[in-house]
Amino acid sequence: MLAYVLRKLLYMPFILLGVVGITFMLFTISTRPEALAKIQLGEKSTARQQYQWLESKGYINWTERGLAKMKAMETGALPTRTTQLFNAALLEEFAADRDRLEAEMKDLDGRDQNDETKAAKSVLEDRIFKNKTLINGALKSATTTFLIEKLTLETYGKANALAAQEAAVAEAKSALEEAETKKDGVEEARKDYEAAKKQFDDAMAATPGALQKLKDAKAEAAKKYAKIEDVEADLRYTSRFTMFLHYVSDLLRMDFGDTRSGRPVAEVLWKGMGPSLALALPAFLLSELIALFFGLLAAMYRKTPMDATLVISSIVLMSVNGIAMIMFGQKMLAADWNYFPISGFASGFGMVRYLMLPALLYVVLSYGEHVRFNRIIMLDEVGQDYVRTARAKGLNENTVLFKHVFRNSLIPLITRWVVAVPALYTGSLILESFFGIPGLGYLTVDAISNSDGNIIRAVVVIGAVSFMLANLLSDVLYALVDPRIRLG
Amino acid sequence: MPWKDVIKQLLKRRLAMFCGVVIVLCMLFAVLARVLVKDADLASRPGVDEVAEGGTGMERYYHPPGWFLAFSPEHEHWTKTGTDKNGKKNPAIAMEARSWGLADGNFWRFPMGCDIEGVSVLAKLIRGLELAFIIGIVPTLISAVIATIMGLAAGYFGGLVDDIIGFLMSVLASIPLLLLLIAFIQAVKDSEAIARWFEGVGLGDDKKAVRNLLLVLVVIGVTTWVGLCRLVRGEVIKHKNREYVQAARALGCGHGRILFQHILPNVFHLVIITFTLAFVGSVGLEVFLSFVGIGIDPTLPTWGQVISAARNELQRDPSVWWPLAGATTLLFVLSLSFSLFGDALRDALDPKLRT
């Protein structure tokens, strides 16, 4: 037996790795790491903070250019708010989109021009426009960064001011010429022009050559950043495998990340476990006791109308949809007849009245399947040879049933109970969300509606681990309880 | 597999045969659903019910089943008439105007009542029946195919193949099904590659509801094959060293032929039995997914949507219970028939599993 247990325990990490791998794959296929960072750090975090967090978690690697930019931003040489950090993957995506859209446009141009192609063309033009806006924005940002780096922030600012003044001068000049042709307001226009020119000349004298430097640098930038492919990336995503390794190491340290509202997932899960267990444990015990009772009843009164009633009732209750039953139950028992409160929860002893209806509904919901299963098991046992022997020995029916049949039918039942226990902590998703019980099930349904990936991932991993442990425990228990079974 | 014996055994059980007839009737309705309930019947028709002269006075255009109204003249649905669009309270309906007796057409007009949007509940549920069959059959088919292939391979070849497939089964079985479904659906929902594939097949952006439904069904199929696979694998292992397989090998049959011509027919009864159970399970899963709000478009008239929409309807004053009652009843009838028929089928196909 020890060898069996050890072997199973040895397999477990691999299966766990598989489970974690699947959940990781499912959650990263559709979300970018940037979205993850936003969840963790909040919507208001800057791109710089997000990328720093991503780097610490192993999702991205800085390029040299990126490192230089970050250092410049720290020393104040680059403005933090406006400097954009370029992700290699995003840049490649822009370029690929542009090429693909161009190819589609060319293809549409080659076909006959009718209403259909015109409609498709206008849709395509929309997309091309959006893509161009993105690309132009990126190019502009890259150009600005290059200019600031070349001229230093201060000089850049001054040169920009100069350029603005130069433009103001040109505007005043054209206003003057217009006034002269119209022969109206010439004097004011000339005064404005003189003032603007004087301001410009003074400023030029203060910082000679700055404007020229700016113009030269702009020309250089235009040549350097002609297309999006010329922009250097500041960071790139690491391989998915590296991301996965980091994720696994986080899990090993029980670091599940933060929920959307900022609290650590581990704390939220821990607090949610209490109400879940408060509902699930008593309900589970009650429903199993009742199912055991009815199973024994079916075995005792087999082949009588009582047995038939039990079979019919269990199949009927199994076929009714659980959600509909909960809705009707809640409406009739709580809302209409006011036997129970409709929903809500309280801590301490007050929670009992809030848990009564959910527990009752749990019992009714699980009655059908459990009674059916128990009945089959017990009838199986009753047909065995040892029961015939016991009766032949002269034991009365009660002893045969409650001492022999009951004990032997407990074996498969125990294995089923042990495996059902991990499901208890997750609570019943439906019951908790209908009755407003703040347990783990309610949390999970909330997380689904809010697309909070961290909670769902954590619940899945914990569920898988406890399920595997429970399976192993039930195997061991089965071997302990049934002397005919030898594990290994 | 001695099919004649199976059918003879099956015919002996009258209850199961009755359920079989019910199932066939449902299938008939499902196939004819588009003919019986045209799209216009499902269109939302808010406004005063135009049945009686000058309307029924009910500003609410939804009302309970005709027979319910006829037999409960004191019900508040008559007295709570609501207000018209100018804000004036509609007058209570006079006794003479209550033409809901057996002889009048109103009794039969809405056998299951008329829901919030003015659509006859029965019409919506018949359309839902068609969808329920699709929801039941597609995932079960997919999962049966996957499970059979995996089970045959794992049981027959053993060794490394068995280890790999066993590992896959353990991993999939360890993750709670509902959470696995939700994670899978959210991952796949917005994928570009899949959207483009769908466009190629002809389900563009306008048919988003059908597209999402198919996606959900495929996901259910791909995640629920583990149970059947375990059964098939066990059975294949039992059959692997039987004499007829040894004889086939001695005759020079290759692995493929042995698997699909000799072993598969002897294992197939498990597939059929699981099919009936999985059908019901799949429909139940859809109800849950609609309730949680994942994957199923609210515009599709599936039963799950009716049931989850009923949650808000029940809280109205007076409460609107008849869509929920109708959907639950139809779902109950379908589940019961499949369960009983599946039970009888199991008894007929494999006496060893008989209870």
Could you characterize the architecture of this molecule?
- Chain A is mainly alpha-helical and 488 residues long.
- Chain A folds into two domains: 60-237, no CATH class; 265-481, MetI-like fold, CATH 1.10.3720.
- Chain A is built from 19 helices and two strands.
- Chain A has helices at residues 2-29, 33-41, 47-56, 64-75, 88-110, 115-151, 153-182, 186-206, 210-224, 240-252, 265-300, 305-319, 322-336, 351-382, 385-392, 397-426, 429-435, 440-450, 453-481; strands spanning 60-62, 235-237.
- The mean pLDDT of chain A is 85.
- Chain B has two domains: 3-38 and 125-354, MetI-like fold (Orthogonal Bundle), CATH 1.10.3720; 47-109, no CATH class.
- In chain B, 68% of the residues lie in helices and 0% in strands.
- Chain B has helices at residues 3-12, 14-36, 66-71, 76-79, 105-109, 121-157, 159-174, 177-189, 192-201, 208-223, 226-240, 243-250, 255-292, 303-313, 322-349.
- In chain B, helix 6 (121-157) runs parallel beside helix 10.
- Chain B is globular.
- Residues 47-59 of chain B have low confidence and may be disordered.
- At the A-B interface, helix 1, helix 12, helix 13, helix 14 and helix 18 of A face helix 7, helix 8, helix 13, helix 14 and helix 15 of B.
